[in-house]
Write a structure and sequence with these properties.
This protein has about 200 residues and is an alpha+beta fold. It has a single domain, classed as Aminopeptidase. The chain is about 35% helix and about 30% strand. The chain is built from six helices and seven strands, in the order βαααβββαβαββα. A seven-stranded mixed sheet has the order 1-2-3-4-5-7-6, with helices on both faces. α1 crosses α3. The protein is globular and about 40 Å long.
Length: about 200
């Protein structure tokens, strides 16, 4: 399990933080205009949003957090300047079965490939298993998202389902991969990586 010294929300380079309803919408709006990023983050249709639309979406998300208690949205911020660099979420939590889905993405291409996604995923898993006491987490990744697949493989997620030709993107059909990780696997992985 987690030690008393484990930082749940702060890594070496990034932290998981709150949604800033005044500053974040402008940045998140810019990300929605980046079709490459949105096609990596989302499985469904994507479309650009204005800053006001993003703000409304985030406020609606906050109401859902309060009402249902099965969604946990975070923003990924750089430790050096508290700048918004990405999104992270635990959603569709089924408390009875101890299941949840995770999602994350680093918004700007210049902020990717710096290890920030790995740090954010580690903290998200620590929160999901160590605090929420989930039994398993799942993640959906598009076949063309080779960076996402590599990230989940690094954390020893297991490919559990491959929905063949489930997505129509970039003028061709792609598989949708569903990965899963059990709490016992997370505990073993944490012990091995802290040795």
């Amino acid at each position: 399990m987690l030690s008393i010294q484990t930082q749940l929300f702060e890594g070496q380079s990034v932290r998981l933080g709150y949604i800033d309803y005044e500053k974040d919408p402008e940045i998140e709006s810019r990300w929605t205009h980046n079709s490459e990023f949105m096609r990596l983050l989302e499985i469904g249709p994507v479309y650009p949003l204005s800053a006001e639309q993003v703000k409304e979406r985030n406020e609606a998300l906050e109401k859902q957090v309060d009402k249902k208690g099965n969604i946990f949205p975070f923003r990924i911020r750089a430790c050096e300047d508290n700048r918004l660099v990405g999104l992270a979420m635990i959603e569709w939590v089924e408390w009875t079965n101890g299941n949840g889905f995770i999602r994350l993405g680093i918004g700007d291409a210049g902020d990717r490939n710096r290890g920030w996604g790995s740090e954010a995923l580690r903290m998200l898993l620590d929160y999901a298993f160590g605090e929420l006491n989930l039994f398993r987490v799942s993640a959906a990744v598009q076949e063309y998202n080779t960076v996402g697949i590599k990230l989940f493989n690094k954390f020893r997620f297991t490919e559990e389902v491959r929905r063949r030709s489930a997505l129509n993107r970039y003028g061709q059909r792609w598989d949708l991969l569903l990965f899963g990780l059990l709490r016992s696997e997370w505990q073993t992985n944490r012990k091995e990586t802290t040795r």
